[in-house]
Amino acid sequence: MESTTTLSQLSKSKIEFNITWARYGAILSFINLGLGLLQMIVNGITGDASFFGALFSFVISAVISIIMAVNLLKYSKLCKDSLTTNDSMQLQQALHHLKMYFTIMGIIFIIVIALAVIGILIGLLVALASI
Amino acid sequence: METNNSIFQQTGITEAGLTHLNTTSKWTRFIGIIYAISGILVLTITGFLAANMDQVAQQLMAYNQMNETVMEFIQGGGKWLFILIMLVISFVIFINAYYLIFFRISFFAFVNTKEETQLTEAFDHMGKYLMITTILSILSTISSIGMIIYTLMK
């Protein structure tokens, strides 16, 4: 049988604190997504912004937000269930979802940094070419 | 006779669970470092803009046809309001960086020493990070609602 690190009451209370905020965070992500959609529709109706440009960026951000929020929600739910049933396997699954949440976030950061570096390089090349 | 097994069981983290936490902590360290660098950049840009606010405002005025009232506001109290907002933003970024990096430090200490208090601290840092991001999400929700109302009222 796989060895386990037993959690103290204090650790459990800290995990419960995690559960609460992870759940609220995930729910708010879904609410913000809905509001983002509403804002895009309103902007489209009033003609404030390019609708298709806004739709494209919304779809990309929506997919990422949904995946992240689902992982956070599953982390919260499985953590709660594991503490209720004392099931270590559920806690393991919960930690897998926490890992996925931060992995996605880290990859997004890498992509953003790479795009920023490419942007700076293109800017420098354009500036050098115009001299 | 029916017995409640949960009384005799204790929740624990399996080896696989600890591996997941280890990978998580590596990513949180990376994200935390990026946050810290971003915070330093925000502070540097704020300092640079604050020191040259008059020239920046004049350039903006030339490009965007800003009126005199806006210009006076920027050169007066607006400058300090801008600095205050930027300082709050950088403070929030540094707080996020702190909790993410210290999650890794606490978890790494737990892996080395097997002291459960370190694991408790790691979960504490994670909880506080999640709390701050949720509070920021609330602010984002409020600003989104404000933007929608403003667009509809316009």
| Strand proportion of chain A | under 5%
How many strand elements of chain A?
Answer: 1
Structural class of chain B: mainly alpha
The N- to C-terminal Cα distance of chain B equals 71 Å
Offer a quick outline of the entry.
The complex is a heterodimer of chains A (131) and B (154). Chain A has 131 residues and is an all-alpha fold.
Account of the 3D structure:
The complex is a heterodimer of chains A (131) and B (154). Chain A is mainly alpha-helical and 131 residues long. Chain A contains three helices and one strand. Chain A has one domain (9-104). Chain A has helices at 9-46, 51-85, 88-130; one strand at residues 4-6. In chain A, α1 (9-46) packs antiparallel against α2 and α2 runs antiparallel to α3 (88-130). The mean pLDDT of chain A is 91. Chain B is an all-alpha fold and 154 residues long. In chain B, α1 packs antiparallel against α3 and α3 (68-113) runs antiparallel to α4 (116-153). β1 of chain A pairs antiparallel with β1 (12-14) of chain B, so a sheet runs across the interface.
List the main descriptive attributes of the protein structure presented here:
heterodimer; A: 131 residues; mainly alpha; 3 helices; 89% helix; flat; B: 154 residues; 4 helices; 86% helix; elongated; disordered N terminus
In terms of topology, how is this protein built?
The complex is a heterodimer of chains A (131) and B (154).
Chain A: E1 4-6, H1 9-46, H2 51-85, H3 88-130
Chain B: E1 12-14, H1 15-51, H2 53-64, H3 68-113, H4 116-153
